[in-house]
Each structure stands twice: as C-alpha cells, then as structure tokens.
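We include this case.
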Amino acid sequence: MKKSIFFLLLTTLFFGFSPLECQAQEGAILLEKDHSLHSNFHKFALSRINTINRNFLHTPENMFIEGNGSVYVGRYHKVDHSSVVVEVKQINSNTAPFIGVMQYVESVFESNGQCNISAAEGPFNPVMHRKVTEIFRYVQNRWQ
C-alpha cells in the first residue's frame, strides 16, 4: 500500500500525470522486447549509461587515490552496460502514452598498493554495488 501511494505521489510530482492516470498505470501493458519502441528505449538507455559513466567524478581515467603512507587505495565508479535492464509500458495517458523503466547497477571499484602508482595500476575489485531505477516518459516521439 505504501509503495502504491509513493509511486502515485512520485509520478504526479515528476511526470505531471493526474492521479487518475497514475492509477491507470497499475494496468499498464508491458511491450514485447521485439517492439520497435522497446529497442528504441534500449538504445536510449545505453546512451544514457555512457553519459553517466562520463559524468562520474572518479572514473578509470580520473580515479581517486588516497593513502596514509603505508597503503594507498585507488577508487572509481562505473556502470556496466551488461547490468542494464529495460521495460517499456503502455499507459492510459494523453500526455505520455508510454513509460520506460531502466534499471542498472552502479559499482565502486578499488585497488590497494604500497604507492599511488601501484594503487592506480590495479587490479581493481568491486567493493560496493547500488541498484538504480530511472523512469522516463515518451513524449513527442522522444524519451524524456
């Protein structure tokens, strides 16, 4: 019940759907993976992942390295393209007839070394994962 109310409020505030349109999403129709709009959203999602990876403060090309004199740690963030899962749903809305749900895993990688150079060279191992869900709407023939 709390999830339903939260989703209703979230959708109303961020997407401009009316409460009646939000309630209609419970009966949303999931599009097949071979549908052209599904493949269009999948391409959009992968492009968005590229942008997210470029915009991290600490990337493999610009990692954060800290040390206390005896041990140095190199750290960066990355989203693996293989972690991306997308769904496209047709909803009963005049303003946005489709929504796309994108889920992915954001990971933090770390390496230890005895100096900053060895910490930067790796090997890097994932130390933290965070599952992220983003919801987009399809308006005027594009994803927003």
The chain has one domain: 28-143.
